[in-house]
């Protein structure tokens, strides 16, 4: 009996999803690319997404619904299809250095550096590479919108999902590590999780090093042990984020970033600082 390895299986799903979007957009689909760890290596079956990039001739009213509806249908098949994450934009927008769909700066850089063509004609040389300031500001907006919410802050204080969901656990721990690496050392190049982890742990006395090492092991396939995770989170999660927020806030001020972003980071740091020394406690009841 032949067993398909996880990377090959995920690539097969990406190919099938690509053809589903080809059916949806017809000749408006210029190209489809594979992004993420399936493109640059290091695919982790337990936690990695299947990142698909769609490049269109133009964008029109209704495109968002086409992308969403097709994605919902594909993810509804279950299994690996649930990992599908879709980025999309028109080629003219990517040439101009922005997106008119859903294609953040870091993912545009990843397309230029690591994109693997699945369908259509190659366009990576036409993609305008985001500047470092744009990458950092984009990451800051993502952090405010996704990680600084009341819901996530409450989860950091009293972990529930973090103790049982390896995808959320690894993302929550490694997001700030990758953002720090992008800002300080990536040098205008799309960084992988492995590069970011190695760089961070090589720093003198890195904050929450034990927690980051645990996240790296879980990403590689180690199972979550709720008791161990709870202890590591209590010791390191909030200090890790306070370190990231302090570093990011300094950069935001130097870069004359929008006041709204700086204020959001300041409030976020203050909120985490109210947790009594930074310790998170597992939820009970």
TrEMBL record:
InterPro entries (UniProt xref): NT_sf
Protein name (record): Nucleotidyltransferase-like protein
